[in-house]
Design a protein that fits this description.
Helix content: 55-70%
Structural class: mainly alpha
Order of helices and strands: HHHHHHHHHHHHHHH
Number of strands: 0
Shape: globular
Distance between the termini: 19 Å
Amino acid sequence: MAGVSRDFGGRLRGLRLLDTPARRRALRDGLSIVGVLLLVGLYVGGGDPGYDAYAYWRAAQGDPYEVAGGLGAFHYSPVALVVFLPLGLLPWPAAYWVVAGLNFAALVWLTGRWALAWLAFLPVASELYHGNIDLLLAAAVVAGLRRPWPWAAVLTTKITMGVGLAWFAVRREWRPLLIALGFTAALALPLIVFLPSLWVDWLVHLGEATVPESFLVVPVPLGVRLAAALCLIIWGALTDRRWTVLVGAMIAQPILGIIGFSMLAGIPRLVQPRVDR
């Protein structure tokens, strides 16, 4: 994490006002104060937290695909449902704080000493408040460029973000591509064999799922965003720009809302010099 901080801070040196460690620390500390105040403000004035996390907890209680849209709607695959089942053993408030804690841990892993400063970026603070899994998926994408098995977390939740695997295909890195797909298949196969009806329920649910109408949702069709994401990732693969995988995956989310942009917190790790496997 220290390496992430030094690298991210080092890239700010081109700004004249941030050309000393003291000034960079001052920027980080100032943004951290703003970020903490912003997060506290959400909790104080934003109503009940955990809009997204509630869906994971409710799904673990039974009938995971009953709600088509809105509060409590769970759109992820049966594999993801199994992962979320332990949340159902907890009372709702405790389950929410588990999700929030995991998100914050992912934020720290991605940004190091700049974690609190990133809270000043509204999508990040909103992500922690609502309890989605975008920061966790950002960590999976970043880690998946070194060890491909974390892509299973992406492919079993927000499957369209799997367009990021085009990175390996364009670069003809077939081994990590096959590992990512094979590990995902290995997780899914037992559930397909023993609980096929659950997969049918999921597919029916996806056909009936509704997209929320909100100014917080980017009003660009998924097909357009997928095409744009693929073009970005192909360009990045040809020019060795790893950050394009993260940005492309973010653009390709099934529903891209304001909190989806919290995935940008993963960029500091991807702008570091690449270390070959």
